[in-house]
Amino acid sequence: MIERTLTGRPPEPRLPTGTVDAQMHMYLPGYPSLPGGPPLPVEPLPDAAAYRQVMDWLGIDRVIITQGNAHQKDNANLRACLAEMGDVARGVTVIDETTSDADIGALSDAGVVGARIMDLPGGAVGLDALEAVDARAHAADWMIAVQFDGNRLLDHLPRLARIRSRWVLDHHGKFFAGVDPDGPEIAALLKMIDRDNVWFKFAGVYESSRDGWPYGDVAAVSRKIAAHAPERIVWGSNWPHNMIRKTEDYPDDARLADLVLGWLPAERARHLALVENPERLFKLPAFAAV
User: Fold this and answer.
1) Which of 75, 77, 238, 277 is catalytic?
2) Cα–Cα distance measured from residue 230 to residue 268, given in angstroms and rounded to the nearest whole number
3) CB-count exposure of residue 232 (10 Å: 0-12, 13-18, 19+)
């Protein structure tokens, strides 16, 4: 069992109206973990009711639910979560070259707007399927969330440059071995972000930081990217922080949001990252129309 904080002092300054949480996971009863993936999060299951409390606490109006690795290629839990959350939610799922057009159409009807590539242990579909997933996502007008060891960015660059879909580099790039903000990896990343179809996600900073709080190593890179292209940053809470297994290690989501959003260069950049940029990446309607 774990005690997740679901309420408390809100972020300061408050999140703007229309804020989108672009990265989180949700789990409902009846959908077990599958072979090849990690276990489900520690009980109690982080479900829709719990996340609605987080939305109220932080001031989140819309959410992108990303299919958890525990469910591998089975999207049943994601579809159930989207149905439970209603119009405020959209989803990022797992597909591959075997996913039929009919299935993609049904997923779109259920609220899915993207596919994920997770080229790390426990991921359901890795970079070996990048071109196939891109072709299917592009045809459906979906985006792709791409996650891998960022220290291999230069190795993957030619293939990444050929992605036709809108796509986001996940979790601050996940430079596990650290990276020089003025080094060749970040220079290449900035050049890639200058393309019209690439975004960078602030989420799960603790997953790749080698420094610990306040994550100065990841902050240095994230500040540089945000200053270069504030119109290409999106933010996610990464709730329910699946890597955290003990109550005493569980983060304060408001404090974490304050820290990470403080790496943005100005108030205008904050509104872009929380409202306008995710609307463009995920093709969400303007908030007033929801």
Assistant:
1) 238
2) 9
3) buried
